[in-house]
Predict the 3D structure of the following.
Amino acid sequence: MDQALYKETLNNCRFCVMCRHVCPVGNATAKESGAPRGLALNIYANEQGLVAAGNESHKNLIANCTLCGACYESCITQQNLPEVILAAREKFVAAGGVCEEAAVVKNNFLKHGNPFGDKIQSERFNGGRVTKTASVAFFPGCTALYKEHNILESALKILNMADVNYTTLAGTDCCAAPLKELGFSKEFSAHAEKLMHIILDTGAKKVVTICPTCAYWMNASFREMGKTGTVEIVNFADYFADLIKENKKIMVKNQREMKIRVQSPCRMARSLGRFDPTTNLLRHIPGMAIDMFNAENLVDKTLRVPESLCCGGCGGTRFVDAAAADAVASYQIDHIRQNVLEFDTLVTTCSTCKDQLGRAAKDKNIEVLHIAELLASLL
């Protein structure tokens, strides 16, 4: 990030509270340290030597910000504080101020190639699907591989039913987003470049991912390598919509009436600029009562923020402070229930959102499904 812009943004944000009402961490924890202004003050105090910079500062900057972008989106002067926070994390890492939890994630990547520290899982679902003749490369991402297996199985079911000529990517489980978002930019670039070469080596012209965070950072990696436009990276919801149009084998059966709410992940709406393809897709399915949840009645229209509610799992927060991430997820589930009509199923296009929000909704009579899980049950 340009240093002059970095300092200008930091100075502007540390004096302003206008985006306080849209910050998921600040709202969930009711702590000013988790609000955008508090984060800007944290960075400023460290850089001015007013407080001792170190591991704790690095941890606070991650635990108190999911990088969801709500503050940037609501800012009438377009101060990109999330970019400043990400740059500050990288500065802390470069100076040796790495919190213990983030160091564990980095070591897991160096040893196993994923943030969870388990042995590589991608071979588990290959089933002989590694080929250099496929037109599509399927990349589930680490959350589906390690924590949300049903999303993975559902996506594979759909691809197989449609006779899609796809290949899996053996030997790589993660887009390396956790490394980047925790401040380990050097390690991220090395891991991402390896993944990009694996994708290019397949010869596939399209990558289908079930995680918008993967899509965002994979696109960023291709840009960094100067390979923009070489491979198209698409979300599973968009890809499935095309399958329905083009493939007569994909048949959707009539269902009992389902009251659906669609959660638009922050990475989908803000980072990818796709205010969720799920709604239009589900409206073509009989028996679905679909409604997007928006914030028009919640915030001033001059500061209106499309209701892309962060689940709390973004930005590395779930790895560094699980309690903070869970608090955000619980807050967002309650927030939706208080401000929308009755519904029984919350649908998301993000595997991390499914994991975070699913646990928060478990005791509140709400089922949270990834779009792949819902569609697989309807075929």
Remarks:
- The radius of gyration is 20 Å.
